[in-house]
Design goal:
single chain, 275 residues, alpha+beta, Ribosomal Protein L22, Chain A
């Protein structure tokens, strides 16, 4: 005796016909969700990277909507009992090739069917018990946290509440103090700015320029015949860098002019004649 055929299984079904993909590609995705719970099958399809997962996901949600609206069943208590893909019509097209030939293009389609069935009563009971335990645990944690917060609040020292008038007075005094402080800081910044400007002006003021203190030097007297052989120093030496030379024709280096040399020669010749 044969078992129940796939297309005769009990449950809520949904079918999409002439889907523009091959049955082979659809079967690769259907193998991932076969026998899975509804919520788990949805998660698998959302994380799948295959293109057929979008079409199969829409078909699965449609089947769950049929079960909820038509039969009044809870989709959370259902699983994918069967899913299969049959080949549909194939569109034939032609592509020109070399030497006047043509190649056939087959654009395949498929019919996809998903069947959702209700889980066994034992599985449903275990699932409900697990959900109830999780909810009770969350509730217990929430209550424990609230109790800890209440104890912490009770242990903290109570703050004295000021009357409305006193609170308003304190707030006004604080505002006036802040205004006075801001005004004092503004005046201080202005005075500091003025001091900096006066310091800058005094630093840039160098005073009047000093007058030239150069005094011309007097001419030295001409050397006599008796003291021609003695070397005399000028009374005043011109300042360094002026480049002036005395009237006697001698510079700072002690050079002798032609006139002085001629006078010395004449004096020596007179002494020879007298002797």
């Amino acid at each position: 005796m044969f078992g129940v055929k796939t297309n005769e299984r009990e449950g809520v079904r949904a079918t999409v016909r002439h889907s523009p993909m091959s049955a082979f590609k659809a079967r690769e995705v259907l193998d991932l969700i076969r026998g899975k719970q509804y919520t788990r099958a949805q998660e698998i399809l959302e994380l799948s990277e295959r293109g057929a997962s979008d079409v199969v996901g829409k078909l699965l949600r449609s089947c769950a909507a049929n079960a909820e609206n038509n039969d009044g069943l809870d989709p959370e208590e259902m699983f994918v009992s069967a899913c299969y893909a049959d080949e549909g019509t194939t569109l034939k097209r032609w592509r020109p090739r070399a030497r006047g030939r043509a190649t056939r293009i087959r654009k395949r389609t498929c019919h996809i069917t998903v069947i959702l069935s209700r889980m066994p009563e034992e599985e449903i009971a275990r699932r409900r018990a697990r959900i109830a335990a999780e909810q009770a645990e969350r509730r217990a944690r929430r209550v424990a946290g609230a109790r800890r917060g209440r104890r912490r609040t009770e242990r903290a020292p109570a703050k004295e509440e000021l009357p409305a008038a006193e609170e308003l007075t304190a707030l006004t005094a604080d505002t006036e103090a802040l205004d006075a402080l801001s005004e004092a800081r503004a005046l201080e910044s202005e005075s500091r700015h003025g001091e900096l400007e006066s310091e800058a002006e005094s630093a840039l003021d160098f005073g009047p320029e000093p007058e030239a203190s150069w005094v011309p030097t007097e001419k030295a007297p001409a050397a006599s015949a008796e003291g021609a052989d003695e070397e005399t120093e000028p009374d005043e030496v011109p300042a360094a860098g002026d480049g002036d030379v005395g009237a006697s024709g001698s510079s700072e280096t002690g050079a002798v002019s032609p006139g002085e040399a001629a006078g010395e020669t004449g004096a020596s010749s007179k002494k020879d004649e007298e002797s």
